[in-house]
TrEMBL record, chain A:
CDD domains registered for this protein in UniProt: TM_PBP2 (cd06261)
PROSITE patterns (alphabetical): ABC_TM1
Keywords on record: Cell membrane, Membrane, Transmembrane, Transmembrane helix, Transport
InterPro entries, sorted: BPD_transp_1_N (IPR045621), MetI-like (IPR000515), MetI-like_sf (IPR035906)
Membrane topology listed for this record: Multi-pass membrane protein
Membrane spanning stretches: 9-30, 103-124, 136-162, 174-194, 235-256, 285-307
ABC transmembrane type-1 domain: residues covered: 97-304
Family, per entry: Belongs to the binding-protein-dependent transport system permease family.
Organism name: Bradyrhizobium centrolobii
SUPFAM superfamilies: MetI-like
Protein name: Peptide ABC transporter permease
TrEMBL record, chain B:
Leader peptide range in chain numbering: 1-24
Superkingdom in the source lineage: Bacteria
Name of the protein described by the UniProt record: Peptide ABC transporter substrate-binding protein
Domain Solute-binding protein family: 79-448
GO annotations of cellular component type: ATP-binding cassette (ABC) transporter complex; outer membrane-bounded periplasmic space
Protein family: Belongs to the bacterial solute-binding protein 5 family.
GO molecular function list: peptide transmembrane transporter activity
Annotated localization: Periplasm
PANTHER family recorded: D,D-DIPEPTIDE-BINDING PERIPLASMIC PROTEIN DDPA-RELATED, PERIPLASMIC BINDING COMPONENT OF ABC TRANSPORTER
Keywords on record: Signal
Amino acid sequence: MFAYLVRRLFLMLVTLFGISIVIFFLLRIVPGNIVDILFAAAGYVDPADKANLEKELGIDQPLVVQYVHWIGGFLRGDFGYSYVSEKPALQEILPRIPITARLAGLALLFSASIGIPLGVISAVKQGTKLDYALRVVSLSGLSLPSFWLGLLILTASVAMFGQMPIFNPNPQTWLEAFATYAVPAAAVGFRSAALTMRITRSSMLEVLRQDYIRTARAKGASDAAVNYHHALKNAILPVITVIGIEAAFLIGGLIVTETVFNIPGVARFLVEAIRWRDYPIVQNLVMFIAVVVVFANFTVDMLYAVFDPRIRFTE
Amino acid sequence: MRSVWALAAVAALSVLTVSTTTLADEGKQGGILRIYHRDSPGNASIHEGATYSLNVPFMPVFNNLVIYKQDVAQNSMDTIVPELAESWAWVNDNKTLTFKLRQGVKWHDGKPFTSADVKCTFDMLMGKSQQKFRQNPRKAWYNEVNDVTTNGDFEVSFNLKRPQPSLLALLASGYTPVYPCHVSPAEMRTHPIGTGPFKFVEFKANESIKLTRNPDYWRKGRPYLDGIEFTIIPNRSTAILAFVAGKFDMTFPTEVSIPLLKDVKSQDPTAVCVVEPNNVSTNIIVNSTAAPFDNADIRRAMALALDRKAFINIMFEGQGDIGGTMEPAPAGLWAMPKEMLESIPGYGPDVKANREEAKKLMQKAGYGPDKHLAVKVSTRNIPVYRDPAVILIDQLKSIYIDGELDVVETANWFPKIARKDYMLGLNLTGNAVDDPDQSFYENYSCGSERNYTNYCNKEIEKLFDAQSQETDVNKRKKLVWEIDKKLQEDVARPIIFHARTGTCWKPYVKGVTVMSNSSYNGYRYEDVWMDK
């Protein structure tokens, strides 16, 4: 188990190093920089002023020097200053992380707590009206883009209740706090829940046809014991994989959801930073997301080992 | 005797009526005005920006020497009133503009305001000081100013190279606040200090901007509001829905498009909405340094092919204006008379005849039904740019020009224009002040950085100077019309239309005036109050 852990940790570090290179150079390949954008906003380009500003921000340096400067700072915990706000990058990023983390966590919770039970029910009740109804729900979840669902929820809230659940930084009531996160989390988690439900259903159907399930039933085990103790435990591995992958994909969904619900989280902030070519913010934020995703996958790998002991021995 | 009593009664009633009106019109103190903001401005320094995304939230922090009267929609020389100045006078054959300054005014950090601050500000704008702005987009406004001198703590003079009556108009713009000497440009970008009715509290990028009432404001009894909060909501649908749901008291000024305005009124019939021109023209920039638009006939044909009315009908449901460089009347002060405008090729009402003429010019240049000219129409990837570009491409088809849309990201737009890497471009030009000096020198003068097409006509340049020095308004107007007509005939930067946009607020918000000939000057907010 220890060797397995070390191997995975080493792989994680190599992946992060590769990601840092990709992030840095991809950003530089994109045409235009912060100075171009600042001058675009002013409607003119003054070559002398432009050169001065590039020098001030250090983007006139060779790329390798810029990379070493950035990654060295990152490792030392010095994340530099935002080109746009001129505030420390960490000061800009940190307050936004809990907001997105809460939203993503709730969305994943929504996805798992709705998707897994409904998937099990759908599999157990295969071919019934309930199964068909649940499959329609899951299909609609996969088909509805989260931005559209978000706008639909907002429009319906205004039309039906005259209220709107957009972000409130200082909620006064429990209901406001709930609406601040729960509604957008449901909007972004709906698609995830639908996917989780479908994977759970198909995985369960496969397991339910296994001989040992028949044996368990023959031995007089109750339906609940068969479905949840014997079948679900073995059907859950692909579901965990999907939830792990979804955690990474969630960032994409959150960009749109944070924009529609006007949530000042990292996802929307990242898009704005890319638009401004605010390198210190983009590099550090994407690196942070990469760390989270790589770590989530690492956790999933560890969970595999916990759920299926054969994995540690075969690897 | 009876008539004397009757007169007295009428007089008493009149006094009562007047006093009642005054009471009703008096603002109530208190309340936070909540406005949504369309995007996150790059910084908080008005002098370093060129977008009204910056003026709207930060103009309330500052004062100018003079300002356009905030409760009059149409900016003109007659509506300029003193602000940090108490009075002004033109002396020395109109070559010196002297201001007597208000005494006892304090910066938000408690330091006193003096003439040194005015000198510092304008020296920095003219690039004459040690401290520099990172960007100085309006440096050219002060080309005719030799220097700024002080006489004691409360008098300042602008010494000009030649008379320029428009200088006063430029000083009255929302783009011309006075900055404190003791605060660096870098600090002003992140934490602006002004003398204005509201103090800066915080600016969270992509989130919010908060201002609070300045209790020591020099204008007693103002501002009425306790503060202003701007919530940054880039998504238009969310912002409008939030306004309808009562999360905001006011929309972002001039940001509600005509179709959206209908939505707002249908969902919230109590909302007060006004539609005004905003002195932003949608125009075509032509690269006349390279083929095929180095051919004057093709440039003229393109201008003749425009059906301006169709643009306005499609994009604004008919609510837009056709004009030249200067904003059309009645909102615009310098617009050509209708007959003069319609005498310019392409402006006549008979679009079909114009296009027939255009076809002939194209055929003369070697193009026709069997040989179309392929061009790229470049524009920024923003709906207000993209949408008219698509209509333009459609209209050009009628004269054998096949356009292809080339959508350019904002970061790459100006570098692309600067290196002349375009054939046709669809562009928007906003004017901070409805004044020919600002518009002509900035957009058409030889060597100007914002003259994207490098149009340069020495004869017209002389006329620019002539109108700029002319102190008789009527004579100046005639010169301006002549110049504007010539610019359109030369296809210097064909103007397609001037847009109109909407602003809405809740009925309890009082004292809002939306300017009709500029989107940059009406956001001091010291007279705004809430009746609730």
